[in-house]
């Protein structure tokens, strides 16, 4: 919500502010000007008062000095002294005793002469004796106050022997003063001449003074010091305005009517008089006050014009501002189309334009923002939805992880068990924990495939399982049904158990049950049964876990069975091997014994034939000799067979001892060649043996025997004119010895078989060539005994090559 600041508008505040400012300026200016004017007026008035009073006092002093000189001249006249000193002192009862006589007349004449014609202020002369008796008086005589003033002045004159002017005194509404001059007779003061004067009618002087000060309301006073009597210049007594003693030359004093007065005083030298000029202060201030009024009038005008100007100015400034404000408020309230009318080209016009541009941008931004907000809201909803999904997925993952962990525990435990017993006990123990079941059983399918036999169970007491050691497959128990259907069977509650088609009436312990077929490699091994303490909903996760558990169990049982079978097979094989070994030993000993037994009569046959050939028993005919040769030949053949059999049986009986030495091949080649030479010559084949420097590690006798056999075969199975070749070659740390011929060759399918005992390719042919079929078998065994081997390659009709692979001597 938009909050508007409350308070007077700028349109009102601005002119008020300007007016207040103007007021302050005008007031300060007026006050300063008034102060200046007032100070100047006071100064001028004060100056005037001072100048006038000083002038007056100077004029008065001059006049007094002139009069004093006149009076001093008068008292020198002897008539005066005589009047003063003459006659007896009048008594006190008649203080004014007119002196008569010539001296008095002369004195009177003198005194009369010294009164100027038209002198209106002179009241009369008096001559007094030094002891205080009036000797002569002209004009009016003073009353009581005048006499007090006169006597005071005479005492002072007597004391100082100088002219003394008495203080002023009043009498009958008039103001008077005495001038007293001591009268000498020789060097002695014999009396005093006193002139009584009224403070006269000085209207002209007053007018002049007024003109001088330039003020109409001026009041001028002549003042007597000491007496406290003040008088106007016209001679009227007046109330003293101040005590003159401590007052400076200019001063302020309260007037009789309460008005404040400005004053200036000027003492008249040689007299007790001072001139005091008083001027009412408001008279002095009249001009500054008038000036102030004028100023205020002008100020008021200025203020009025200023206010009007300020009003106009403020309207000029604030009206467009108000337009901008109204538009801004509209924008703030959401009306972004509001614009300010721009009619001016100054700053305010620019403000309006700027505002319009701003409002336009704000409007655009607002629209954009609204779009974004809409998008954001949609995004937030989408995010919320995704979040929900994610949470669900996370929960699912967590459950899966827990499941996996439990299964892993089972797997780890199963890994430690190899035989069936171990596996079965691990399954019921760990499986129960993983499945959170109260009891579990493992059944194996009976050999007749008709029933399940209990092999392991846990969690049951002895009692409830008594009827469950053998479960015919036809029953509707979960385990039997699982094996029949090949699927897991879940019974969630005792109620469900009761409702099973053809169910057994009495369920085993627990409130929920499950049966799983144990199937491995496509073969049903048995079943796993689980019981749960409470009714169980068997939700999707639980089923997945139990199924995985049962599959793991099936595999473990299969593996354990295989293991057990393998162990049994190994035992059987061991048994067979031992039997074969003893049979072989019997055979070898039989062959050895038989060979030995056969050789003795054969040797006897040979001996007797030789006796007959040598005709020691009588003459032998040609035919007989031929028969004898045949007998001898067969005897030799038989003997060689028996020797070969004997050799072979010895080798196979492990009675062969190998004496390995470094054997130079060239030597063995030489021996073989010497031994075979008659047979080669007889057969009419070409025999070639390559020269060689190779040395092999072998048993010399055995190697020669093998080579002799191979070369003998080659000669025998090569037609006359053919070629038998003996060669050798170094291949790494092995030496290859080759016996090749250009004989009849061996069929490819017989190349392996010829190494077996008594195997001959062509028995008839061999018999002709004289063979037993044992030579290659013996050769192979000998080569193996010497850590070597024998290989054969052949091409039928073109020849054969037998290769011996031997170790090279170090
Ligand atoms: P025999 O005593 O029969 O020669 P051998 O074990 O030495 O016994 O040889 C087995 C058979 O291998 C021979 O009977 C013969 O058929 C075949 N045989 C061996 N060597 C050769 C050869 N160089 N050329 C052709 N056949 C051969």
Structure report:
Helices cover 52% and strands 20% of the residues. With 810 residues, the chain is an alpha+beta fold. Strands 19, 20, 21, 22, 23, 24 and 25 form a seven-stranded mixed beta sheet that branches. Helix 1 packs antiparallel against helix 7 (286-332), helix 8 (347-415) packs across helix 12 (540-613) and helix 15 (700-716) runs antiparallel to helix 17 (775-785). It is rod-shaped, with a radius of gyration of 87 Å. The two termini are 107 Å apart. Mean pLDDT is 85; it is low at 89-97. The structure holds adenosine-5'-diphosphate.
Q: Quickly give the structural class.
A: alpha+beta
Bulk shape: rod-shaped
Overall helicity: 40-55%
How far apart, in Å, are the first and last alpha carbons?
107 Å
Low-confidence stretches: 89-97
Number of strands: 25
> How confident overall, as mean pLDDT?
85
- The DSSP helix count reads 17
Rg value: 87 Å
Main beta sheet:
7 strands, mixed
In percent terms, what proportion of residues is strand?
Answer: 15-25%
Q: Which ligands, by name, code or SMILES, are bound?
A: adenosine-5'-diphosphate
List keywords for this structure.
810 residues, alpha+beta, seven-stranded mixed sheet, 17 helices, 52% helix, binds adenosine-5'-diphosphate
